[in-house]
Inverse folding.
């Protein structure tokens, strides 16, 4: 086949892909070029973030830019890397166009390893622009990179940038605007022992799998680098002749002990080594960049100070979530009430008005109220990620997480779940191994989220009469609930890793990037994206479930003058409460508590307002005293008190373990791409909650409490 | 030249050349692709506060790996 020397820009809007190792500054560059013109979503079938933006050429023509997930190699190890490989090889053409041009971003201070991916990409024979980013860091480290020499050796445009300061962006745009780009001059010696296999596999891939020649060669090389051919081919399996050929070669090599994958990797690094040697001159470092990182690490990963720093940061995180979020949460709350009141004044009384105020506004408002906490959490996560601390947190926590079969990367998602399981589950995307990720998702809702707080507070107040017990008892009870959830999460993670989701012990091969000043623009952009995802969900699925829940507590209608408590009692929700009473009675709950449990599905803290209605208390947000009195006065039909200390404890423990949050179910459905896992989660968590409450209540009753 | 030892036994702060390496296993292939090859010089930077994982410096950047992997990587300490 004759390859044209230069490839013209296609007549439609050209598609560029940004590729690079993690931590090379790729996202900063992408954000700088596309600004707010970004579309963030998911690649269909996997939960890998898909970012597409529009940049404008020097002549004002729009260009589509895909920000591919960070990858170290095309021999993919994680769902993220698999997407990058699939898009570049054109395996995802049904949802993501194969890019016309590839922009490879490398970290100038870490050229050798960064060029490994570039080396693989140059094999594809497509138009490439290489961006050497972080030139300032490289210079400070005493590295002088001869860009012109790199350009000459690779045969493609090479642009030096410092994305954090916006340097080199115009040059990059100019290169991207060129109507013709030279194809790479890319020759490297495939090791002699492996070369015949590469040629044969390439031929077979062309003939039997209908691959274009250069893609066939790249795939042949990947098939020999990766041990699992399924990972290379993705959804389209290899044809039988190619599979047979591959097996034949592997068997032969295994017999004569040829390290075929290793020799391919080594040959690439050898070629890269020569290139780097001829284009980089090292002098003594001017600044102390690397030393700064080492000095910080000496404290941050120290066996004593490391924990102190870690504890300090986590305390600051939670203090911010609970204190800084308080005012905005009150504003949202007040706004919701004001909006509902406004609607009440404008509309004639009736079902439609109630649906809008009590169903839609109250239901969606009850979820949106968590937005400030989620924003603060993502701000912190973004800050910790962009400075480089996150990798250190995973580093020091890995040993503890390893005890239950997870790795350090599961730590942050679990920690985030103390604020809310939704951002926690969304944060599991950094975990490469799909099984580890699933286990983390499955146990994350055990961590007591902030929506459980109002329930705990109410139950502790009902359990312990005010003034008679020291405050520390209350605090102790609260800590006990948090501890129970945490132990539950780790216990089940351990169990799942040994049974249901048995896998290889997780790897902890992770780069510890140098510390850098945070890039607030990137952090804020990410916060805005997450908030958008959260609000979209509130506007769709949560809206729908709020309407359903409202209907369940409103219909069928009793006579118009019946008090609210009676209305609820005979509604579908009330009937459901009565229906589940036989199941929850052994835990110490009657049907009225049952209504609370059912309405908690909107958000756990709804329990408080639901019980106010059920026990006929005039709702007053600021003061739970009337509700407490009503709870203390509540009895079983035979006159025994309902909210005994034991029943309160049982109810709290139920809230610790049960999965009763529709937003979490929705997010798990989205992140696992199936209904199987969220339903399993509802089943196992709620089943476990029921079982443990049964033990508590029955043992307690038998002991005479 | 010192006797070859496992990477996990290298004293913190010292340098070594990688000698040998298991041929198969997901972890080892990834480590290769991250630039840790026979002949590569590594420095053991530190161990995590609880003794595992380890942090090494290879080709100018810092990388973590668990002891279980480091046990299988043979290195020759550089004096």
């Amino acid at each position: 086949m004759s390859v044209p020397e230069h490839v013209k820009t296609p007549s439609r809007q050209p598609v560029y892909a940004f590729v690079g190792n993690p931590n090379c500054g790729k996202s900063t560059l992408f954000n700088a070029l596309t600004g707010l013109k970004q579309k963030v979503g998911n690649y269909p079938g996997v939960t890998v973030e898909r970012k597409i933006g529009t940049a404008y050429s020097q002549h004002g023509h729009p260009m589509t830019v895909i920000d591919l997930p960070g990858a170290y190699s095309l021999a993919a190890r994680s769902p993220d890397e698999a997407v990058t490989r699939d898009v570049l090889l054109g395996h995802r053409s049904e949802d993501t166009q194969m890019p016309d041009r590839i922009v490879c971003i490398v970290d100038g201070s870490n050229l050798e390893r960064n060029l490994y991916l570039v080396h693989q990409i140059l094999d594809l024979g497509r138009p490439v622009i290489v961006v050497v980013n972080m030139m300032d860091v490289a210079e400070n480290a005493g590295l002088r990179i001869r860009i012109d020499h790199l350009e000459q050796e690779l045969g493609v445009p090479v642009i030096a940038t410092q994305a954090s300061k916006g340097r080199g962006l115009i040059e990059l745009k100019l290169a991207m605007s060129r109507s013709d780009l030279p194809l790479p001059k890319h020759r490297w010696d495939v090791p002699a022992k492996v070369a015949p296999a590469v040629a044969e596999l390439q031929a077979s891939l062309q003939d039997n799998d209908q691959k274009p020649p250069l893609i066939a060669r790249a795939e042949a090389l990947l098939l020999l680098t990766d041990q699992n051919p399924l990972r290379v081919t993705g959804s389209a399996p290899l044809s039988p002749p190619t599979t047979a050929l591959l097996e034949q070669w592997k068997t032969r090599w295994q017999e004569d002990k040829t390290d075929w994958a290793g020799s391919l990797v080594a040959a690439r690094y050898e070629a890269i080594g020569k290139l780097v040697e001829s284009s980089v001159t090292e002098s003594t470092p001017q600044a102390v960049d690397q030393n700064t990182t080492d000095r910080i690490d000496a404290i941050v990963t120290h066996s004593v100070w490391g924990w102190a720093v870690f504890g300090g940061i986590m305390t600051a995180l939670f203090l911010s979530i609970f204190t800084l979020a308080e005012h905005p949460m009150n504003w949202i709350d007040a706004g919701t009430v004001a909006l509902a009141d406004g609607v009440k004044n404008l509309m004639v009384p009736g079902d439609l008005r109630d649906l809008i105020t009590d169903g839609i506004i109250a239901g969606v408002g009850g979820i949106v109220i968590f937005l400030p906490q989620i924003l603060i959490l993502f701000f912190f996560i973004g800050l910790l990620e962009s400075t480089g601390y996150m990798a250190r947190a995973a580093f020091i926590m890995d040993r503890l997480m390893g005890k239950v079969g997870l790795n350090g990367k599961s730590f942050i998602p679990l920690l985030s779940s103390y604020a809310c399981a939704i951002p926690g589950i969304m944060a599991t995307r950094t975990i490469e191994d799909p099984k580890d990720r699933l286990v983390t998702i499955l146990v994350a809702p055990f961590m007591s989220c902030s929506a459980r707080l109002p329930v705990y507070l109410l139950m502790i107040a009902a359990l312990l009469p005010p003034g008679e017990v020291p405050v520390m008892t209350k605090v102790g009870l609260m800590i006990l609930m948090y501890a129970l959830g945490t132990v539950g999460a780790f216990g089940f993670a351990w169990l799942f890793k040994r049974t249901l989701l048995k896998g290889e012990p997780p790897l902890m091969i992770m780069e510890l990037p140098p510390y850098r000043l945070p890039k607030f623009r990137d952090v804020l952009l990410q916060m805005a994206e997450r908030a958008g995802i959260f609000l979209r969900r509130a506007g769709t699925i949560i809206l729908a479930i709020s309407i359903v829940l409202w209907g369940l507590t409103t219909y069928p209608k009793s006579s118009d003058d019946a008090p609210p408590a009676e209305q609820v009692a005979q509604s579908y929700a009330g009937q459901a409460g009565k229906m589940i009473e036989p199941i929850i009675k052994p835990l110490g709950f009657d049907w009225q508590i049952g209504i609370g449990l059912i309405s908690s599905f909107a958000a756990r803290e709804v329990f408080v307002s639901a019980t106010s209605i059920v026990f006929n208390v005039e709702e007053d947000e600021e003061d739970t005293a009337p509700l407490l009195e009503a709870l203390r006065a509540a009895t079983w039909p035979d006159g025994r008190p309902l909210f005994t200390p034991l029943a309160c404890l049982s109810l709290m423990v139920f809230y610790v373990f049960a999965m009763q949050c529709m937003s979490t179910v929705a997010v798990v459905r989205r992140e696992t791409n199936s209904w199987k896992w969220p339903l399993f989660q509802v089943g196992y968590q709620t089943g476990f909650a029921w079982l443990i409450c049964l033990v508590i209540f029955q043992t307690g009753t038998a002991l005479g409490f | 030249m010192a006797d070859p030892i496992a990477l996990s036994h290298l004293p913190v702060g010292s340098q070594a050349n990688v000698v040998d390496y298991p041929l198969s296993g997901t972890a080892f292939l990834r480590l290769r692709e991250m630039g840790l090859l026979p002949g590569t010089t590594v420095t053991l930077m530190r161990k995590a506060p609880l003794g595992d994982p380890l942090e090494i410096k290879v080709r100018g950047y810092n990388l973590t790996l668990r002891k279980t992997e480091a046990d299988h990587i043979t290195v020759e300490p550089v004096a």
Q: What stands out?
A: The beta strands of chain B are 5-6, 15-20, 41-47, 54-58, 61-65, 74-77. Chain B has two helices and six strands. Residues 5-77 of chain B form a domain with the SH3 type barrels. fold (CATH 2.30.30.90). Helices of chain B lie at 26-33, 67-70.
